[in-house]
Amino acid sequence: MTNTAAPSWVKVVAEREIRTRVRDKSFLAATAVTLLIIIGLLVAGVIIGSRSDDFDVAVGPGVAPGTADLAGQVLVANGSPDAEINARSYDSASAVERAVRDGDVDAGLVVEEGRHTIVGDDSIDVALQAALTGAIGESVLQDNAATADVDLDALRSGTAPEVRLLDPNADQSDARSGVAFAFVITFFITALSFGMTIAQSVVQEKESRVVEILAAAVPIRSLLWGKILGNTVLALGQVLLIGLVGVLGLVATGQRELLAGVGWSMLAYVGFFVLGFLTLACLWSVAGALAGRQEDLQSTTLPGQLILMVPYFIAVLGGDQVRTIFSMLPIVSTMIMPGRLAEGSVPWWQLAVAVGATVLAAVVFVRVGTRLYERTLLRTGGKLSYRQALTVADA
Amino acid sequence: MLSVHDLTRCFGSATALDHVSFDVRPGRITGFVGGNGAGKTTTMRIMVGVLAATAGDVRWDGSPLTAEWRRSFGYMPEERGLYPKMRVLDQLVFFGRIHGMTSSAAARRATGLLDRLGLTERRDDVLETLSLGNQQRVQIAAALVHHPSALVLDEPFSGLDPLAVDAMVELLRDEITPEMPVLFSSHQLELVERLSDDLVILSSGRVVVSGAVEALRRRERDRFRVRLAPGADTGVFHRIDETPELAADGSAVVSLGEASPEDVLARLVREAPVAEFARESRPLAEIYREAVR
Question: Are A13 and B51 a contacting pair at CB < 8 A?
Answer without folding.
Answer: no
